[in-house]
Design a protein that fits this description.
It is built from 3 helices and 8 strands, in the order ββββαβαβββα. By secondary structure, the protein is of the alpha+beta class. Strand 2 and strand 3 form a beta hairpin. Helix 1 packs parallel to helix 2 and helix 2 packs across helix 3.
Length: about 150
């Protein structure tokens, strides 16, 4: 089963193999954990600022990130006030913009911040950060959940 199809001839599959549909071959997909100029894809686990600082300006066509939503999940080290959280995200967004090639794109997957029972949609706040860097919103996907935070009893 394909997780993503690129350029109509390449298909990344879930068991980390790459299938070349033109040559009808299957090869193992080796994904490094750090940047190198010859690397086509990176899966990095750690502080994203450290990774972004290692990538030369103007060298990435596409950056994908899913920052923590600052809602107290176990993987979040600490919960910050909204203003501090947004300042941290502004640093990451700025670094992502710095590494993009002209015409490059950022996929910024973000959720909501919840404080004292009130929901703050983080994409509305981060949109202002992107605009401040002269980046333009081209698409917006909103997930509708009928479980978890948005469910009722």
């Amino acid at each position: 089963m394909c997780a993503n199809i690129l350029a109509a001839t390449w298909c990344f599959v879930l068991d980390l193999q790459i299938v070349n549909l033109t040559a009808m071959t299957v090869e193992p997909l080796l994904i490094p954990g750090k940047y190198g100029p010859e690397v086509e894809i990176i899966l990095y686990r750690g502080d994203c600022i450290e990774l972004l600082e290692s990538i030369p300006a103007g060298s990435a066509q596409f950056a994908v990130t899913s920052p923590p939503c600052n809602i107290g999940k176990p993987y979040e080290k600490t919960r910050h006030p909204l203003t501090g959280y947004l300042a941290d995200q502004a640093k990451v967004i700025s670094q992502c913009a710095e590494i993009l090639k002209p015409g490059g794109s950022i996929c910024w997957e973000i959720g909501n911040h919840v404080h004292e029972g009130e929901v703050y949609p983080l994409d509305t706040f981060s949109h202002l950060i992107f605009k401040g860097l002269s980046l333009h919103l081209r698409n917006r996907v909103v997930w509708h959940y009928e479980h978890g935070l948005h469910s009722s009893r």
